[in-house]
Amino acid sequence: MPRISLSTLLKCLVAVAVIALTAYISTLTLNPQGKVEETTGVGWVEEVRILIVYDNTLFNRSLKASWGFACVVELDNESILFDTGGDPETLLSNMAKMGVDTSKITRVVLSHIHGDHTGGLFGFLELRGGVTIYVPSSFPRSFKDLAESYGCEVVEISGPTVIREGVASTGEMGTWIKEQALIVNTSRGAIVITGCAHPGVVNMVERAKEIAGDVYMVLGGFHLAGASRSEVVKIAQQLDELGVKLVAPCHCTGENAKAVFRELYGERFVEIGVGAVLEVKP
Ligand SMILES: [Zn+2]
Ligand SMILES: [Zn+2]
After folding, report:
1. Residue-wise pLDDT tens digits, 162-207
2. Residue 54 lies in a domain
3. What is the chain's mean pLDDT, rounded?
4. Structural domain harbouring 228
């Protein structure tokens, strides 16, 4: 039997390890920023800025708070208005004070039919007709007809739908109050934006995860105003188990529920309200 020195054996072992490691690394696809490329069909957006333009909690004192929710999602070359709050005057004045360029808004996504999410739409369309509007397919025909009379294309959402590169809808969910959430997929994971989360915030995040993979942040109304502390604790834990990194509850979440999330999530709780701006950069 030929004799192999210890140093030769060690060299062989190192060589094998290097080859194995190289093979492992090359199975991952890296984007130019060195992050692992997402593998779903949604794609991803490089940068996003989310401006809360309508909420019942004040974040910036120069703006007006009113019951409802709306935010502007600024992407590379266009913006998306998600929900429209309860009235157009508050919506438009807050957007102007926050420096929103309404000419860049090409799409409006409505979470659900309630007036505190759709009330600002037609006043907005007076200013900016001809946009594409994404509504749950259960919306009444009369609503869709009225939107079309402003030169808008109305897209009825049933199942999960990719809206554009990096942006998707969970699809219409729930049995009683039908609702869709918006998914914005970034290099850090998906941002899930809910209106009121009537179908259950955990259900909506589970659906978003099936569509876009890892969820980075959940933002919007969690609809927990009437929930007990133990119910909220359970929901907070379920979102954590789903891998949610940051929570930014607002609108109909309820002050008590917000306090529980603040306590349990610590630095992972993002304080928002009308006037807040969230930014994700690569
Ligand atoms: Zn609602
Ligand atoms: Zn609401």
Report:
1. 999 999 999 999 999 999 999 999 999 999 999 999 999 999 999 9
2. yes
3. 90
4. 48-280
Q: Are 63 and 277 contacting, i.e. CB atoms less than 8 angstroms apart?
A: no
Tell me if 28 is assigned to some domain.
no
**Angular region, 237: left φ>0, alpha ψ -120 to 50, beta rest:** alpha
The Å distance, Cα 208 to ligand 2 centre, comes to 20
Q: Kindly give the distance from the C-alpha atom of residue 193 to the centroid of ligand 2, in angstroms, as a whole number.
A: 13
Residue 209 in domain: yes
**67, two tokens:** 């019951």
Return the CATH number at 135.
Answer: 3.60.15.10
Distance 169 CA to ligand 2 centre (A): 18
Residue in 29, 23, 134, 136 with CA at minimum distance from that of residue 82 = 134
281 alpha carbon to ligand 2 midpoint, in Å? 29
Structurally, the chain folds into a number of domains equal to 1
Please report whether residue 3 resides in a domain: no
Distance 114 CA to ligand 2 centre (A): 7
Q: Is the pLDDT of residue 64 over 70?
A: yes
Average pLDDT over residues 95-107: 98
Per-residue pLDDT band at 282 (split at 50, 70, 90): confident
Among the bound ligands, the one closest to the CA of 198: 1
Ligand 2: centre distance to CA 117 (Å): 6
Global confidence as pTM: 0.86
